[in-house]
Structures are given as C-alpha cells and as structure tokens.
Amino acid sequence: xxxxxxxxxxxxxxxxxxxxxxxxxxxxxxxxxxxxxxxxxxxxxxxxxxxxxxxxxxxxxxxxxxxxxxxxxxxxxxxxxxxxxxxxxxxxxxxxxxxxxxxxxxxxxxxxxxxxxxxxxxxxxxxxxxxxxxxxxxxxxxxxxxxxxxxxxxxxxxxxxxxxxxxxxxxxxxxxxxxxxxxxxxxxxxxxxxxxxxxxxxxxxxxxxxxxxxxxxxxxxxxxxxxxxxxxxxxxxxxxxxxxxxxxxxxxxxxxxxxxxxxxxxxxxxxxxxxxxxxxxxx
Length: 283
Prior knowledge:
The chain is an all-alpha fold and 283 residues long. The chain has a single domain (40-277), classed as Ferritin, core subunit, four-helix bundle (Ferritin, Up-down Bundle), CATH 1.20.1260.10. Helix content is 67%, strand content 3%. A two-stranded antiparallel ribbon has the order 1-2. Helix 2 (46-79) packs across helix 7 (232-239). It is globular, with a radius of gyration of 20 Å.
C-alpha cells in the first residue's frame, strides 16, 4: 500500500509540466485549470458532499492508474510495427490521464477533502498473449483498453448532464472530450489492423472476444457495487457534484454494450453478438 497524491511539486520541473499542459495538451480558454474557483458555488448537504468527494477520490486513483496502461501500450505498438501517429497519440493519452488525475484531485479539494488516497500503487502489466504474433497482441490490448474508454464516454456524458456545480461540470466536460479520443483510438486501430490479419489471425481475435467482453463486464460491474439504496433526493443532490450512482451506471453499461460496442465490432466483421452471448465471466 502507498499514498497517491496528485499535486504538482515545487521544483524546476513544475514549469515544464505547466508548459506541457498548456501547449501539448492545449484545451483553450475553458480549460478547468484556468477556472477561477476555490469554493463551492451551490449549497449542498454534508452527506451529498461526502458521497461525491469519495467518488472523485476513487476516480482520481483510476485516472492515475490508466496513465500506466496507455504508456505500456507503446512497446507493443512498436513491436507491432504501428505507424507513428498511433505511437505519439498513445503517449498523449497517458499524459491526458495524469492531467485527469490532477483535475479529479482539484474536485476533491473543492469538496473539502485532501486530494490523496491510500491504495495499492503497483500497476499491473498488460497481458502478453504469447499465443499470437505482435500485431494481434497489440490489437487485443488496444481494443480492450478502448472498449473500456467507450464505456467511460457514456458514463461521463450522463454525469456531465446531471452535474450542476460549475467547476465540476467543467471538469466532466473535459474528461468526456478526452475519453472520446481515447475510445476512437481503438476503433481506428481495429479498422487499420483487421484487413492485415490473415484467416487464422481473425479467427484468434474472434475466439478472444468472449473472454475480453466477459472480463470487461466483470471489471466494470465490480466498480459499480450495489449496496443499500440511497434516498433519491440525496442521489440527485450528489449527482449535481458529479456523483455516479451504481444503479444508473449499470443501466448505462448494459446500454453501451448493446447499442455501441456490439454494433461497432460487428461492423468490422466480428461476430460480436455470439461473442457477447457466450462471454466468459471473470472470476
């Protein structure tokens, strides 16, 4: 276990970091970093603030961990002989996630919390998929990551629409915009790679799909635990601060699989419906 903090340190690299955010990760005049707020604009109950604060603290950890996932995709893209734009974009996405962690930390602070969390900070390596060549290995891991980001887009869009607090809404708007690019990456890479796979390669991807979809669903549901149902008035108040209700999130998850993921996988030529029906639930 360790302690994750996302504040920017006070050393000579601080200026380099700020220039990266301002230039390489340009977001314009509406960037949340430039949002002039130090306190809540609305009036909220302590229970609503607590719910939202812990939600944002967990999101801070998740975003920080995601940066490692994207950075670890780079070696696999190199081995897969990906063209340069895929490699530069994947590193950009890793920086996006670090920036997101910092923004989530600012929301935690806005909600009267310390932007830190005790957690297991050891990151997991990407699956090596030794049974397939580099091109398929990269495709499997890129696709799985972007399927996850596709789900995040739907969740963030819903949260953004329900949010009322100005700074929270600005952060959700930015996170949603970035996750759209992260999700598109996988679909673009699939479209670029699929025509270059031989018959055996396509068959292996088809066989992998039930495992990937089942594992993804299991991981997502684990992040949306169903506990004691909260009073609707409290949920709505917390949603104004970006709180994600598990019941709503689970419904959106199911809709995203049915309305987005399965149709887009099918459009490439994969039998996504059969793969979804036969998905292998992770233990």
